[in-house]
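hey so i finaly got around to running the thing on Oxidoreductase dlte from Fusarium albosuccineum. pasting the sequence first so u can double check i didnt mess up the copy paste, my clipboard has been acting weird all day
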Amino acid sequence: MLPPSETEGADPLPPATPQASGGSEFGVALPYSTCLARAPCPPKSVATLPLNHHRRNFATSPVEAVPNPGSPRNLTRVRYFLVLSQRLKMAPLYNKALVLGGTSGIGAAFAAKLIADGSKVVVVGRRQDRLDAFVEAHGSENASAVAFDVTNLTGIGAFAEAVVKADPDLDCVIVNSGIQRAFDFAKPETLELSALGDEITTNYTSAVHLTAAFLPHLRKQSQGHLVYVSATLGLIPSMIRTPNYNASKAALHTFILNVRSQLREAGVSNIRMVEVFPPAVQTELHDERHQPDLVNGGEIGMPLAEFTDKMYDGLVRGADQFAIGPGERFLEEGGWEHQRTQLYEAGQGALKGSLAKYLKK
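ok and heres what it spat out for the 3d tokens, dont ask me to read them lol
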């Protein structure tokens, strides 16, 4: 039971007997999966927060069923979720997730976070020593590893086939591989155009190929997930020293919007495509080995552990896209990207009508 100072006069929490379906004996009919999706933080820590925090987060949520109609509707649902989180073992976010770019930075940290919360992972990267170290650290019962370079576009099909054959219970693919390079077009003699091509392939083209390769398998799952680690710079390209990186992430964003709409129009309801817009994060993406014009670049941005927790929280909430850090305001109602998304959705209908007579039946 919560301390009296946090219950604010609420009735004592009723006893509950866990049931396999995620419900409990005290009569709340809110689906287990719905509670999990609406959690304001990782489910295993939800019960440690003050009740006022839950009241703020649940205040506008609709009520599907309540045990006591006389109670405030948000408080009733919070009491239910607190009991649920305290009395039941929460389901993991995914059954098994494939994490591309899993040998360092966001990929390695998020793979470890998933394992800590009950998901199995398959980490993918180029560096075999780091893959082996990850599996050793987390145990072969929780993690496996595959060495693969996502810039090998012609090999992605065979790679995907091998992964799903070895792990048929895979229900999530996290597309996280990424590089960032500086290009100064005011000094064209300094440009290394091969590096420009590598950046586009890593950040964008490989994501397209991976999506095509894993969609057939994910469509066979009861619920399949494609999670893309994008960048706020793909929305607002404010850092002009990385024009190609910004463009690659903008292309990725447009691709995700369009494919998500295609799946929706085709009636595919068991695939969720989620785009995450990180801020700068303290990883080796910015270190001097990769960006020699920087000094102490690994100190730039949000601490990795903080970002990892926020990304997990966002995925638990269940939005199709979300930002962390400065980009959050762009996606809020009335924000720049929110308005652009509305224009995008309105434009689809207009174009569909105007193109109808030109499209082959």
